[in-house]
Records
---
Amino acid sequence: MKKCRQSQDKASAGRPERMFEVINPDAAGIDVGSAEMWVCVPEGRAEPRRRPFGTDTLSLAAIAAWLKECGVKTVALESTGVYWIPLFQVLENHGLEVYLVNSRHVKRVPGRPKTDPADCRWLQKLHACGLLSASFRPDAAICRLRSYQRHRGNLVRAAAKQVQYMQKALREMNVLLDQAVSDVSGLTGMRIMDAIVGGQRDPKKLAELADPRVRKSSEQIARALAGDYRPEHVFVLQQALQAYRFVHTRIEACDREVESYLVELERQAGRLEAALPEGGPGGPTKRARRNTPDYDVQTHLYRLLGVDLTRVPGIGAETAQGLVSETGTDLSRWLTEKHFASWLDLCPSPKISGGHVIGHQHRHSQNRATLLFRQAAASLRESKSWLGAYYRRMKARLGPNAANKATAHKLARIYYRMLSRHVEYQDIGVAEYESRFRQRMRRNLERRAREFGLELVPRQPTAADPAGAQEAHSR
């Protein structure tokens, strides 16, 4: 294999390399792997120009040293799994500009061999010609917060998995606890499961553990708890309970770490004593969900950002903290809110040929910020705010999926304006939104009438048509 690679290097060294116009003459390319890193520097900087390195820390430091020795200032590498993270951090610490490239943007072309040496050379060629765009990665301070938040999300999903194991063990014993109470992992559910693990089998005594707020009667609960308590299923239930409680202790420890780090960020921003403004719609009155942190997330975010994101309908404290950890506090990387929405894949992607739209691209985004905006939009289906009215109007017109995307697009634009301009959210109200919508529809109708040489005349109110009179009066 080594002889074959050496022969390829010698063969390619004898002929001039065909390239487009070089924009970044000091650009290098790195093919990232789990066991080997292939690095390619510009032509004439070293011989051979492609070299393999290991993946340990000393090898990564050797890569940075060789690149600086060759006069390289910017490096392009693919986002391969998590193997790129240590290399990215080492190169960044050595003062090199690192382009993290989406692998979909550097797909191999027909006729190009798919090997690690060829891939690093292909990346170097594209980067030198300015054909690569860097993926967004926040600064080191936000990356630390993002790691905490993503780890916390994994812990929450692990706890939910243990709840499923509990429900499965109960079903195998034919104990219908999920029919007796609305939440198996709630106060009543945990009491009953602890009693079952402790050896209690009498349905009536188990039913006495129910909280007075449970809607079902004691007889109904006792009937649902009469089951076949086999030891193997009780053992599985016990293991799931222990794992569930252990995961929640890890979540609490993660919350304490996040809170202390937020205080550190607030101190660096000089807003450690800032207080939330009083009043305003959609603020502290929002109902807290389960698995929310015990500390005051809303106040910490306000001190960090200078604006209260929880005033926006649909965006709670936990959602706001997740968005900040994914996008950072400085949105200057996106020139406008339209660029921000495009990065989130929340804008239309039409296919245009010959001046005509022949279809639309349906991109399946894995952006975590996009998922958070979509979740916030889905929570507005019953909201009495103007965003809720917009969601319902779009749903009636285009369907639920398009309505969710359009409302998420609205939320993303509001989020961008608040952080980039440092202004608070002002709710216009449903009545004002409906009034603006009717005015816009009327202007559109007048424009269409002028295109056909017609004139739009409002209907005159009559005593026999009170509905029409009221409509004309509202106009």
---
Amino acid sequence: MHNYSKIIGAMAAASALVAGSAQAEVTVEYDLHAGYTSEYIFRGVDLGNDLVEAGVDASAQVAGLDLSAGAWYGSFNKNLNDTGDQTEIDIYGEVSKDLGFATASVGYIWYINDDNTDVKLDDAQEAYASISRDFGFAELALTYYWDVETDNDGYSAFDASKSFELNQCLTLNVGGTLGYLEEEGHLSHLTAKVSLDYAFAEHAKFSPFIAHSWDLSGGHVDDNGSLINTSAAPGTDNELFGGAVISASF
């Protein structure tokens, strides 16, 4: 119950920020989205099956800074020895600045987990810093996530993405993420994704996608000559998954 009280408080704070922006005649843009994914793959880790998700995002530009915030809800079947389902709520915000040669961003993510299973996942909070640049052939970004509550092994992500406009209604998107664990000192996963945006209305699109995640954690030999598993979490594996998202902006 305490989680929902926090959510209500966060929503009230967000409403106050939006109201303040409106008074300052700042244009706020919104995006609503919902979708389904066959498997919930998070940073190379298979958390469960049949992910149903929905979310809302808001963005605005104030004093040369790009501000964004949002909330995401997901429900999925866990890959455990029980039959319970889990729900997750993420609340996040970001501030970014175009520096000319690159765009720098800082942000915060709050993960709230609630499930009916015997194995409970702890809530978590992360702060992150990112730098990105569009080189033309691809947009590249490097992000470091610092875990406030639990331990993400100093997770870093290198992202590359490119979009190709096929016609007025269709856009092909390709991208990939390479994960690295700073504390463990090794790569964790490589995930590649291809999606197709179909703009069926002026401010709405339908986006089916397919993706594959490769486990790069493998194992290594310790000082005693023993092979040990270096996976950051149980469930890291090679996975093929897909789904679709429908979104609308206004």
